[in-house]
Design goal:
heterodimer, A: alpha+beta, seven-stranded mixed β-sheet, 7 helices, 11 strands, 40% helix, disordered N terminus, B: two-stranded antiparallel ribbon, 16 helices, 2 strands, 1% strand
C-alpha cells in the first residue's frame, strides 16, 4: 500500500478506520497466536541456530515445498513482504544487482537464494510476479531455480522468523522489520547475518553488497563455519505516516470547502444582480450609466 | 506626454502623484506594463547569465551563485512578469473599453492591487540584496530545503504571498466588471474573446491563488516558528508541499496562457479580415481549460511517489486538457482559411505563437504520459517544454498584444520594418536556444545542474549562441517600441481595421473612454 497521499486521502481515511476496526477484531480474537509476534520489530541474531525441519511454504507455482529440503546447498535467505513500497524493493534490487556482478560462483549450483514473505496476504501469484522482476534485474542469465520466492501461512512464517531471530511489527497497513541477508549452511544452520552497512542516497541502487563479501559468506556457509559479528543496529524498513497529517487535512478541507463555497456564492450573487439589472433596464429605469 | 495630444487624452495629467494615485484603469495598466517589462528585462539578463555559465561552468559564477541566479530568474519571470502579465497590463487597459465601460468595477481596489504588486516586488527585490543572499531553491520553493536553507527564502516567499493577494483582487475585480459593467446590448456571446479568457482567468486566480498563499504561509511558519508541516523530521510531509504547490501552480499555467490565447483570438481575425471561426467553441474552451486545469497538478509529481491509480488518472486528465487547447488552435487556423491575411507585425507574432505554442503543447503530451515522464522528468526536456509554453506562448502573445495595441495605448505608430527584423532574429534565436534543450533533455542532461559531462557541450553551446541571438532580437523590438513612444507618428483611431470597441475611440483613449456609453446591437460581426 502506498503512503497516504493527499489525493487518496479520503480513501485512506476510510481504510484507516477499517484497519483499526479490523485490528481490534483480530487482536480480540487471537491474542496468543499469529499476531503476537507482530508487536515489536527487531533482530536478535542467532548464529549457529538451525531452522525447524518441518516448515512448509508455497513456491511461485503454489506447490507446497519443505524449506529444509530446499536448503541443500549454501543459501542466502531474505525475509520481506512483496507489497512493500519502501525498503524491500531497494534491498532486493540491490541484491539482484550484486548477484549479477558475482561471476565467480555458479548460481543454483554453488548457492541458492530464497526470499520468504511474512505477509499472509502475499500469494504465489504475487511471488511469481516479483520473481520475474528481480530475475530480470540481475542483468545476466540466471536460472529461475536459483532464486525462489516463497509464501506461507502465518504460523509457519512466525516459526521461521523466531528461528531466525527476526521480529516484525504491523504498522498501519504495512510492516516494520529489519532488512538482512541470512546465510545458511546445507541442512539449515545459520552461519552469518549480513546487515546493510551503508545506504547511498540518490543512487539508483542505494543498497549493494560486494561480490567479495557475498562469495566469502557463501564459502563459509558451504563449510558450515558460523561467523559471529557483533550485533549492530540493522536497517529497518518502515512506513512513514506523519502524525499530524490528519489535523492538517482537517484544516485544509475546511478552508478549501469554505473558499469554494464563497466563490460559488459570489458567482450566483453576480448572476442575480445581473438579472435584476436586466429587469430594471427592461422596465426603463436604467440611469444611463 | 506631448502637446500634440488632444486635451482629453488620459495622459493629460502629469506628475508622479497623478500616476501612482490614479484610479484610471488605463493609467494603472500602463504602469503595470512598465513594471512588467522592466522585470522581464532583468529576467532576460539573468537568463543570459545562466546560459553564459553553461558554456564555461565556473568561469563567471560559482555553484552557489548559479543556484541563486536560476532561482531569481525563475521567481522574477514567473511571479513578477508572466503570472500577472497579460491581465494586469492589457486586461486593465482594454477590458473596460472592450465591454463599453468607463472603468473597472472597483477602481480603487484596482489601484490597491497595483500597490500590492509594487510592495510584493519590492520585498522580492529586497530578498536579493540583504544578508543571507537570494533564494537558491528554484522558483518552486520545494520543502524541506526551503525551510532549512540560510538564503532569504522567507522574505521572497512573503513577497510572492503579497503578489498572490494582488492577483486574487485583480481576479475579483475583473469577474465583477464583466458581470456588472457590460454596456447595454453587450451580451455574453457578443463579448470579445479576450474578455472571455480574462473572465476564465479571473475565476482561476480567485480559486487557485489562496492555495498558494496558505502553502507559502506554512513555509514561513516553518522557517520562523519551526512548524513542521512539510518537514519529515518534525512529523511533516514534503510531498504534501509538492501537492499544495502544484495545486496552485498548475492552474497558474492557465493564468498565464489563457489571456495569451485571448490576445491571439483578437489578433488573428483582425489580420485575416474574417470573423473568428467557431466563436462559441473558443469561448467555451477557455472555460473548459480553466475548469479541467484544476485536476492535472499531479503530472508534475509522477516521480515523487504516488499510487499508480492516481498517476494514471492524472495522466489521463492531462491529456484531456489538450482537447480544448487543440480546439483553439484548430479554430485560429480555420479562421486563416480563405482569409485575406495581412502580415503586419502583430500577426507575425500571433502566427509564431501558434507554431511555438503547438510545439510546447505537444511536447507537454509526451511528458504527460507516464513512461516518457519517468525518463524525462527533471531534465532539460522539461525546461525546453515550459519555455516553449511560457515564452513561445505567453511571451510571444504579449509581444503580439504589444504590437497590436501599442497605437491605442500610446497614440503612436511604431516602424514596421524594425519590428519584422526584430521578430525574425528573436524567432531564430528562440528556437536555437530552446530546441537544443529538447535534445539535451532527451540525452539525459538534468535541469538545474551547474556542470555536465563533455558530451553535452555541443548543444549547450548552440543554446547559448541562441540566447545571444534572442537577446539581439528583443533589443531591436524594445528599441523600436521605445523610439515610437517618443518619436512615432501619431496613430489613427483604428490603424488595423479592428472591430472591437477599443478601435471606435481615439488613440490614446480619453479619460473615461466613452463620451456616452455605447449601445451594442445586431450580430457580433
Amino acid at each position: 500500500m502506498q503512503p497516504q497521499r493527499p489525493v487518496l486521502q479520503i480513501l485512506a481515511v476510510n481504510l484507516n478506520v477499517l484497519i483499526v476496526i479490523g485490528f481490534l477484531l483480530v487482536t480480540a480474537g487471537e491474542v496468543s497466536a499469529g499476531v503476537s509476534w507482530m508487536k515489536k520489530a527487531g533482530l536478535w541474531e542467532k548464529p549457529g541456530n538451525v531452522i525447524p525441519p518441518d516448515l512448509t511454504f508455497n513456491d511461485e507455482q503454489g506447490k507446497v515445498v519443505n524449506l529444509r529440503d530446499m536448503i541443500d546447498r549454501p543459501t542466502i535467505l531474505t525475509v520481506v513482504y512483496y507489497n512493500c513500497s519502501r525498503m524491500c524493493p531497494q534491498f532486493l534490487a540491490g541484491l539482484a544487482m550484486s548477484l549479477g556482478e558475482m561471476t565467480t560462483l555458479v548460481p543454483g549450483n554453488d548457492y541458492r537464494v530464497l526470499t520468504v514473505s511474512f505477509d499472509e496476504r502475499d500469494t504465489p501469484q504475487i511471488a511469481a510476479n516479483v520473481k520475474r522482476n528481480y530475475i530480470n534485474a540481475i542483468n545476466r542469465p540466471f536460472p529461475g531455480d536459483a532464486w525462489r520466492f516463497l509464501t506461507g501461512t502465518v504460523d509457519n512464517t512466525r516459526r521461521l522468523c523466531e528461528a531466525l531471530g527476526i521480529s516484525v511489527m504491523k504498522s498501519g497497513h504495512s510492516f516494520v522489520h529489519p532488512e538482512v541477508l541470512i546465510f545458511l549452511a546445507p541442512g539449515g544452520k545459520i552461519t552469518r547475518y549480513m546487515e546493510v552497512s551503508k545506504y547511498d542516497y540518490g543512487l539508483s541502487y542505494p543498497i549493494t553488497f560486494t561480490s567479495f563479501e557475498l562469495s566469502r559468506a557463501v564459502a563459509e556457509a558451504r563449510r558450515g563455519d558460523v561467523c559471529r559479528v557483533g550485533a549492530t543496529v540493522p536497517l529497518y524498513c518502515f512506513p512513514h505516516e506523519p502524525s499530524q497529517q490528519g489535523a492538517f487535512f482537517a484544516i485544509l478541507k475546511i478552508t478549501g470547502l469554505a473558499t469554494l463555497l464563497m466563490v460559488v456564492l459570489f458567482f450566483f450573487y453576480l448572476r442575480d444582480e445581473e438579472k435584476l439589472r436586466k429587469r430594471r433596464i427592461e422596465l426603463g429605469r436604467h440611469d444611463g450609466r | 506626454m506631448e502637446d500634440t495630444m488632444a486635451d482629453e487624452s488620459f495622459y493629460r495629467e502629469k506628475g508622479f502623484r497623478s500616476w501612482i494615485m490614479s484610479t484610471d484603469h488605463k493609467r494603472i495598466g500602463i504602469q503595470y506594463l512598465g513594471a512588467l517589462l522592466s522585470f522581464f528585462s532583468i529576467g532576460v539578463l539573468l537568463g543570459l547569465l545562466i546560459r553564459l555559465n553553461l558554456i564555461a561552468p565556473g568561469l563567471i559564477i560559482g555553484q552557489e551563485a548559479y543556484n541563486q541566479v536560476f532561482s531569481t530568474h525563475g521567481i522574477i519571470m514567473i511571479f513578477l512578469f508572466i503570472i500577472p502579465g497579460i491581465p494586469v497590463a492589457f486586461g486593465n487597459f482594454f477590458l473596460p473599453i472592450m465591454i463599453g465601460a468607463r472603468d473597472v468595477a472597483f477602481p480603487r481596489l484596482n489601484r490597491f492591487t497595483w500597490w500590492l504588486y509594487l510592495t510584493g516586488a519590492a520585498i522580492v527585490a529586497l530578498s536579493l540584496f540583504i544578508a543571507g543572499g537570494p533564494p537558491d531553491t528554484g522558483w518552486t520553493f520545494y520543502a524541506p530545503y526551503s525551510i532549512r536553507t540560510s538564503a532569504n527564502v522567507g522574505l521572497a516567499v512573503f513577497g510572492v504571498f503579497i503578489l498572490g493577494f494582488s492577483s486574487i483582487l485583480t481576479g475579483i475585480n475583473f469577474v465583477t466588471t464583466i458581470h456588472r459593467l457590460r454596456a447595454p446590448g453587450m451580451t455574453w456571446f457578443r463579448l470579445p474573446l479576450f474578455v472571455w479568457t480574462l473572465y476564465a482567468t479571473g475565476w482561476v486566480q480567485l480559486l487557485a491563488t489562496p492555495v498558494l498563499a496558505i502553502t507559502l504561509v506554512f513555509i514561513i511558519l516553518g522557517r520562523v516558528f519551526g512548524v513542521g508541516f512539510f518537514d519529515p523530521s518534525r512529523g511533516g510531509d514534503p510531498i504534501l508541499y509538492e501537492h499544495l504547490f502544484w495545486t496552485y501552480s498548475h492552474p497558474a499555467v492557465y493564468i498565464m496562457v489563457l489571456p495569451a490565447m485571448g490576445v491571439i483570438s483578437e489578433v488573428v481575425p483582425v489580420f485575416a479580415r474574417k470573423a473568428i471561426f467557431g466563436y462559441k467553441a473558443v469561448a467555451y474552451s477557455a472555460l473548459a481549460i480553466a475548469g479541467v486545469g484544476y485536476f492535472v497538478w499531479g503530472h508534475h509529481m509522477f516521480t515523487s511517489g504516488m499510487s499508480d491509480t492516481a498517476r494514471v488518472i492524472f495522466s489521463f486528465i492531462s491529456f484531456l486538457v489538450a482537447v480544448p487547447s487543440g480546439i483553439k488552435i484548430f479554430n485560429w487556423v480555420a479562421t486563416l482559411y480563405k482569409g485575406s491575411i495581412d502580415m503586419k507585425p502583430p500577426m507575425i507574432f500571433a502566427l509564431s505563437f501558434i507554431f511555438l505554442f503547438s510545439i510546447g503543447g505537444l511536447t507537454g503530451l509526451i511528458i504527460g504520459s507516464l513512461a516518457p515522464n519517468l525518463q524525462l522528468h527533471g531534465t532539460y526536456f522539461i525546461v525546453a517544454h515550459f519555455h516553449y509554453v511560457m515564452f513561445g506562448g505567453a511571451g510571444f502573445a504579449i509581444l503580439a498584444g504589444l504590437h497590436y495595441w501599442f497605437p491605442k495605448m500610446f497614440g503612436k505608430m511604431y516602424k514596421e520594418r524594425p519590428a519584422r527584423i526584430g521578430w525574425l532574429i528573436l524567432f531564430i534565436g528562440f528556437n536555437l536556444l530552446y530546441f537544443s534543450m529538447f535534445i539535451l533533455g532527451y540525452e539525459g542532461m538534468p535541469r538545474r545542474y551547474f556542470d555536465y559531462p563533455p558530451k553535452y557541450f555541443f548543444w549547450h553551446l548552440v543554446s547559448t549562441i541562441g540566447s545571444w541571438i534572442l537577446a539581439v532580437g528583443l533589443a531591436i523590438i524594445a528599441w523600436n517600441l521605445i523610439r515610437a513612444v517618443f518619436r512615432g507618428e501619431k496613430a489613427p483611431m483604428d490603424p488595423w481595421g479592428g472591430r472591437t470597441l477599443e478601435w471606435q475611440i481615439p488613440s490614446p483613449p480619453p479619460s473615461e473612454n466613452f463620451g456616452e456609453i455605447p449601445v451594442i446591437s445586431g450580430e457580433k460581426d
